[in-house]
UniProtKB/TrEMBL annotation:
Its cofactor is [2Fe-2S] cluster. Coiled coil: none annotated. Residues 4-98 form the Rieske domain. Signal peptide: none annotated. Keywords: 2Fe-2S, Iron, Iron-sulfur, Metal-binding, Monooxygenase, Oxidoreductase. PANTHER family: FERREDOXIN-RELATED (PTHR21496), RIESKE DOMAIN-CONTAINING PROTEIN (PTHR21496:SF0). Gene3D superfamilies: Rieske [2Fe-2S] iron-sulphur domain (2.102.10.10). The keyword Repeat does not apply. GO terms for molecular function: 2 iron, 2 sulfur cluster binding; metal ion binding; monooxygenase activity. It comes from mine drainage metagenome. This is Toluene-4-monooxygenase system ferredoxin subunit. InterPro entries: Rieske_2Fe-2S (IPR017941), Rieske_2Fe-2S_sf (IPR036922).
């Protein structure tokens, strides 16, 4: 386990996405409407570039070529068959921590 601290939990809002560049790579925190906070890879599986994205509270859209992902699961909606890797996330002393060396397979 190699958790790194990204930010204060209280600075995040439901329905929003926050992107971070770390020594371990790009990571996104996504808190979907009526969902729970999750951490996903911050690169697009299409061309492995940092995901320049928009998020409407449910759906993440890569602005380069409009691939679309479910913000709750990271699964590709258009096209299907792709997905964003999910990383284990924990809250410690009010701080959001993510382990980018592991992949969370709970979805
Ligand atoms: S790089 Fe994201 S859709 Fe092409």
């Amino acid at each position: 386990m190699a958790y790194i601290t990204l930010c204060k939990h209280k600075n995040l809002m439901e329905g929003e996405l926050a992107a971070f560049s770390t020594d371990d790579g790009e990571v996104m925190l996504i808190w979907p409407d009526d969902g729970e906070l999750k951490a996903f890879q911050g690169t697009c599986p299409h061309q492995d570039v940092p995901l320049w994205s928009t998020f409407n509270g449910r759906i993440v859209t890569c602005q380069f070529h409009n691939w679309v992902f479910d913000g709750r699961t990271g699964k590709g909606l258009s096209p299907s068959g792709c997905e964003l890797k999910q990383y284990p996330l924990r809250i410690e002393d009010g701080m959001v921590q993510v382990d980018m060396m592991q992949v969370d397979l709970t979805n």
